[in-house]
Automatic annotation (TrEMBL):
Glycosyl transferase family domain sequence ranges: 172-324
Record-given protein name: Glycosyl transferase group 1
Source organism of this protein record: Flexistipes sinusarabici (strain ATCC 49648 / DSM 4947 / MAS 10)
GO molecular function (one): glycosyltransferase activity
Pfam family, one: Glycos_transf_1
CDD domains in UniProt: GT4_GT28_WabH-like
Keyword set includes Heme: no
Highest rank taxon of the organism: Bacteria
């Protein structure tokens, strides 16, 4: 198949990581992949990975020039299926695909990507052949929130990651090393995370914490670290487009978000053998099993997060190694990238076949 992935978003998000990961696997099993995007960082990363990319300036919704341009690309490269992410893409590439009778998959990364408004309903009804979500929780949320959707409209295929090393996560460092790799902003919980780290410091606990990412709280967090003399314990590393290769040098991965879809970052942590400390939001509990491959807490619960930090800092090597192996086994059995890419390819084939029968 010739598969087109289209993303119009300007900031890096989980869907872009998903596109990169699955594109490479789809190519390995014999499919051709085309990526259409406007984010230069994403395009550069995709090209670095050997993927065929096209720079697109989407413009306003329903832009005739953009629609015609997509039709030209789809015809030239004989596209069999188009996988889109947000409404802007449905209103450009989706229309082009519809005109050309190419099946469209709307890959939803967040339940909030679909809004219960008439224009969204029309776009989904007439432009989308199937909705694809990364976890069962999100499917349930969509069906409960939007009565115009039916269960048959939505399919679930888990994200996946290849394990970085079978020997990952076998050593517990002293002091224990924590890492977080989400956007540095209030919705991701960095404000209450800062308060908890300060409490740990005041209680004389030894730990090291690195923060990767950028956001509207970056400057505030840097000032907080300097003001409270946390420099020896906490460092802000900034944006890193390929942070995954750095993860094996840490012990625990952290997620403190108030809302998520199905966070790729947790899969990245666990593929490096890192047990996870995460807020229990959306589909996280489908990955993290409390006291097995990580720990869960309610978002914003500073006291519980502090207790979990203490538990991790005082953990013995035997317990840590067991949790690390459990994380790796979870990835191998349920979130194996190669297996889930095969499932995605089969899903695309079925959507295409169904579309052809209807025509």
């Amino acid at each position: 198949m010739n598969i087109a992935f289209v993303t119009s978003t300007k900031r890096w998000g989980g869907v872009k990581t998903w596109i990169l990961d699955f594109s490479e696997e789809l190519i390995k099993i014999g499919h051709n992949v085309l990526i259409f995007a406007r984010d230069e960082n994403f395009i550069n990363r995709a090209e670095k990975n050997g993927l065929k990319t096209f720079k697109i300036d989407f413009g306003f919704d329903y832009n005739p020039k953009t629609i015609v341009r997509f039709m030209g690309y789809f015809k030239k490269y004989n596209v069999d299926i188009a996988c889109l992410n947000v409404q802007k893409e449905l209103r450009s590439a989706g229309i082009a695909a519809k005109i050309m009778k190419i099946p469209v998959v709307h890959r939803v990364g967040l339940a909030s990507d679909i809004v219960d408004k008439i224009d969204f309903k029309i776009a989904n009804k007439f432009l989308s052949d199937k909705i694809l979500v990364p976890c069962e929780t999100m499917k349930t949320e969509l069906l409960e929130k939007h009565k115009f959707l039916e269960e048959k409209d939505i399919s679930v295929i888990y994200n996946g990651k290849n394990i970085l090393s079978e020997n990952a996560g076998q050593i517990l460092h002293k002091p224990v090393k924590f890492v977080i790799t989400s956007k540095v902003e209030k919705s991701k919980g960095h404000d209450y995370l800062a308060k908890v780290l300060l409490k740990l410091k005041h209680k004389g606990l030894s730990f090291h914490f690195d923060i990767f990412g950028e956001g509207n709280l970056s400057e505030w967090f840097e000032d907080f670290i300097k003001k409270n003399k946390l420099d020896d314990n906490v460092q802000i590393k900034g944006f890193e487009s390929d942070v995954r290769h750095l993860l094996p040098k840490y012990d625990f991965g952290l997620l403190t978000s108030f809302s998520e879809g199905f966070p790729n970052v947790i899969l990245e942590y666990m593929s490096a053998g890192l047990p996870v400390i995460s807020s229990n939001v959306s589909g996280v509990a489908e990955i993290v099993e409390d006291d097995f491959n990580g720990f869960l807490f309610m978002a914003g619960d500073e006291d519980k997060l502090e207790r979990l930090f203490k538990k991790a800092i005082s953990m013995n090597t035997v317990t840590y190694k067991s949790m690390s192996l459990n994380a790796l086994n979870t990835m191998s059995k349920r979130f194996n990238l190669e297996d889930n890419a095969l499932s995605l390819a089969g899903f695309f084939e079925n959507v295409k076949k169904t579309k052809n029968i209807q025509l």
